[in-house]
Amino acid sequence: MPVTEGTKGRHAQSDIRATEIMAAAGARELHDGEVVVVGLGLPEVASVLAKRTHAPSLATLLETGVMNPRPKDTPVGLPDSRSFYGATCLSGFLDVMGMNLHRGVVDVGFLGALELDRYGNINTTLVKDDSGKVRYVNGSAGGNDVASLAKRVIVIMRHEKRKLPLAVAYLTSPGFVGGRSRQELHLRGGGPSRVITDMAVLGFDAATHAMSVLSLHPGVGLEELKANTGFPLHIPNEIATTPLPTAEELRLLREEIDPTGVHLK
Amino acid sequence: MPVTEGTKGRHAQSDIRATEIMAAAGARELHDGEVVVVGLGLPEVASVLAKRTHAPSLATLLETGVMNPRPKDTPVGLPDSRSFYGATCLSGFLDVMGMNLHRGVVDVGFLGALELDRYGNINTTLVKDDSGKVRYVNGSAGGNDVASLAKRVIVIMRHEKRKLPLAVAYLTSPGFVGGRSRQELHLRGGGPSRVITDMAVLGFDAATHAMSVLSLHPGVGLEELKANTGFPLHIPNEIATTPLPTAEELRLLREEIDPTGVHLK
Amino acid sequence: MANKLKSAAEVVQSIPSGTHIALGGFAIARNLIAVVHELIRQQKGDLTLSQGVVGLETDLLVGAGLVGHLIMGGGSLDRFGPAHCVNRARETKSLRYEDYTSLSICFRYLAGALGLSYMPIKVLFASEILERLEAGPGASDVKRSTCPFTGEEYVLLRALTPDVSFVHVQIADRDGNCQINGARWANEEQAKAARRLIVVTEQIVPTEFIQRSPERTIIPGHRVEAVIHQPYGALPTCVHGCYDYDADHLRLYVEHAKEPERFKKYLENFVFSCRDHWEYLEKLGGLPRIEELRADPISGY
Amino acid sequence: MANKLKSAAEVVQSIPSGTHIALGGFAIARNLIAVVHELIRQQKGDLTLSQGVVGLETDLLVGAGLVGHLIMGGGSLDRFGPAHCVNRARETKSLRYEDYTSLSICFRYLAGALGLSYMPIKVLFASEILERLEAGPGASDVKRSTCPFTGEEYVLLRALTPDVSFVHVQIADRDGNCQINGARWANEEQAKAARRLIVVTEQIVPTEFIQRSPERTIIPGHRVEAVIHQPYGALPTCVHGCYDYDADHLRLYVEHAKEPERFKKYLENFVFSCRDHWEYLEKLGGLPRIEELRADPISGY
């Protein structure tokens, strides 16, 4: 097994990488028979892991119009042919995002973020430097649609203070804006349920809708977590330790799902 | 060539059947490059004749989701596989009637009728006997959709007094209801433009929207026409004689388009 | 992986009386005959039935007295005759009945399929169809409205979301991924608007077959609750690429449907006295008859 | 029968400056490169450009200064980098710009394709996207409204009806009947919403080929004004089943797009100095390079 690298070397006590913990934690959030809209990268790795373990009937949808792909090579992006390989349905936005997501049958939306704030609001549009200068990066694409409509949203991202600010520089995709309920915001989807980072698994407090610590990855301390977070976290009385991937999960991740380490580097 | 039969034997001076005159008159109403939604029977025969003569680029659409079929056997109805043969596109209502008809790109709708009144209102739902007893026959299916939305509508039917009443027993598909303009009625399509019967070709007066005689088929007199019509017709100063099908049109109709005389009997 | 393969009898057992069902046939094509016979055998009543263009399947259910509320755009048995039982029910007002058009039913399903509570449309204006809807209980499903951008007048249609949609397809895998050959009328919207979706398929194929032409998948498996593998499940109606309609039987049906008493005999002979669809197929003439009706691979009929 | 076969140059000559065009690519796939190069060579300016998810084609047009109004849902060149020219234009506010999402652009096209002047949708709420639309000139395209049936709050989106839609497809016949292999994003709605529809196809097939699988026809010929037969017309972006993206060239492009001066050089080298797409393909490495990129028939890339 390889020596741990990347991600601040926080898991020197084992040879397990943070990305592998994230993938396994993501997979555990997905239940058999659910419908999930995934992006490429770790969300896809996590959903494939779930499918190969406890959730064989998981339906994985890509916004472009791809269902249940089984790529054998790593796509550079959603429209890359590599992401179509083995699909059981190839259609388009109207089918995946209209007749599934807007229809209300998507259980989980799996998103990344440039920035994420305490209420689970996501920015994928632009960044501002300290002088206030704006640099555009991307936009919503399907992000706002997924965040608005999926029954629950899982965000998977690096845990860095600047990526978890008090307020996002641009509110692309709503969580619990201003701590308000989704109903007040006229949003059908249930909103963010989990944030999986390379330090912790976080949730949202049922009453305040503020981000709350659920479990710390092995070797990560609460103070370290707070220091790397740009907003006050809700700290419950008990905080678990994130389970490490099982030996079988690690084998699948390393030997079958991402053998060249494109996403798990 | 066969001896004339059927349709009141009005064309004893020639061997040309009324249905053949109707088919040729229908074909002449269709221009090359137009998009037409057709029903089965004479509308289909007329559109195939147009396609084989002056309108090779005519696009023929069936409401079920069939484009440009070239049936070699006679279908019993729209969903019969025989009506799919040779099609260049097989889709559904949403495509043909949503993304073409409702989109506003259908030039001509070609309809039949149980009853038709002086303003081109169509009944395809039910008939009432003299005692007022109702007998249901069918309903709109795509009829109201076509009548509401096609740029112009051609009705093709037998000329009988009871089928051309002062008021239809049920107003399934609107023409110029109450003599009003289509705009007043909130209808996008241009409304009825031609009625082709086994006695005459009729149009609609631009000012009153009432049905008007355009041409009488050879051998049909104006008084005979009036006697077979249940409402007062607008009679212009000049009435033409409907041109007979050309020799080539007759050859196509009899030898290629409907050789067994299913629709042209 | 959950086993989605079920018999028509099992599926129908799970459908309570009073359910809103949507059927995927059109006149004399791809009718859900196996399912409808089973609904009749199990006497599931007080059904709400919605459909773009009705045909034999709906005529059977209405004739059997199981439909309490019919929402339809028209329909007949094509050249074989009218839908006698449906028409009789309309004439005698023995059920609640709302008349639409093919496109307006399709838009109501589309709204349902897209998760919209309504859709605007530019048909029905100035027709007796709209007048009657507005004057009856159907008034709660239509509303006139003005476009806030253009000022144009629209009819707003409430979404149709059947409790259960049934669609007859040529090809499905065990997960419920379906391909439909030939015209599809409103099948995609009707299927995806429903809370529960059941497909009846002529053939079960390996998923690998689906993966060879995934652009052809009209219904994805994750939306499908159950797959009923019933070859010839639509007879006497036709299934493009599989078999032609049985003209003799359709004529026989229409003769019986003309009169309530004869219709009862038809049900007795072809539904109640058959344990399942296989027994019914024997009554149609069994394998020799089916071979006569089998489609040729070029024409599809 | 009118001849629909046209060159990219001929088609672009018929497009006035100020036109609203919609492009059918997505990031690094099925981009309308041959058309966009021609628009740049002919300097068609002040364009309104709408697209679900932008990519190289839009970055080129915006970088060339030809876009006055951009309506988009996001986009990048995937792992090769951001859409530098688009982002720079947004940062310097050198064009009018409206941000949407993939689904809201798709619904705006769907409304256009169905002939509806608007569609309701349940996204954009509580986002800065809607806030900015409502605060700017985009306010004329969005409106909050309540469903008259359920009381639910919706955003109403005005229909998008491009003057001209361009779609790159794998297969078309001379009449314009098109099949698209692989995912189709919003292509069908974008195509059918437009007043004029132009397709660029990798291959011209006999109509008989289309008739063998008419269920695969996504765009029917009667909607198509012109067919541009331009093999490799999307390079350096990929076309499923035909060829892979040219990663080397995409990296080279992104390096140039980072800076306006270098971008000018790119245009000079790969657009202005090429008489047509064939000359451009020579610059990409000609036939030997194309053979390296050719898709294998199993994977499609």
Task: Report on the architecture of this protein.
The complex is a heterotetramer, with two copies of chain A (265 residues) and two copies of chain C (301 residues). Chain A is α/β, with parallel strands linked by helices. Chain A has a single domain, classed as 3-Layer(aba) Sandwich (Glutaconate Coenzyme A-transferase), CATH 3.40.1080.10. Chain A is built from six helices and 14 strands. Chain A has helices spanning 18-28, 42-52, 93-102, 143-149, 222-227, 247-257; strands spanning 35-38, 59-62, 66-67, 89-90, 108-111, 115-116, 122-123, 126-128, 134-136, 152-156, 192-196, 200-204, 211-216, 240-241. Chain A has a ten-stranded mixed β-sheet, with helices on both faces. A two-stranded antiparallel ribbon of chain A has the order 6-7. In chain A, strands 8-9 form a two-stranded antiparallel ribbon. The longest helix of chain A has 11 residues, at 18-28. The radius of gyration of chain A is 18 Å and the shape is globular. Residues 1-13 of chain A have low confidence and may be disordered. With 301 residues, chain C is α/β, with parallel strands linked by helices. Chain C has two domains: 5-117 and 160-293, Glutaconate Coenzyme A-transferase (3-Layer(aba) Sandwich), CATH 3.40.1080.10; 121-158, no CATH class. Chain C has twelve helices and 13 strands. Chain C has helices at residues 8-13, 33-41, 56-63, 84-92, 102-114, 128-135, 187-193, 207-212, 247-257, 260-272, 277-284, 286-293; strands at residues 5-6, 20-23, 47-51, 67-72, 96-99, 118-121, 142-146, 153-158, 164-172, 178-179, 196-204, 217-219, 226-229. In chain C, strands 1, 2, 3, 4, 5, 9, 10, 11, 12 and 13 form a ten-stranded mixed β-sheet that branches. Chain C has a three-stranded antiparallel β-sheet with strand order 6-8-7, covered by helices on one side. In chain C, helix 2 (33-41) links the parallel strand 2 and strand 3. In chain C, 61% of the residues are buried. The model of chain C has no long low-confidence stretch (mean pLDDT 97). Chains in contact: A-C, A-D, B-C, B-D, C-D.
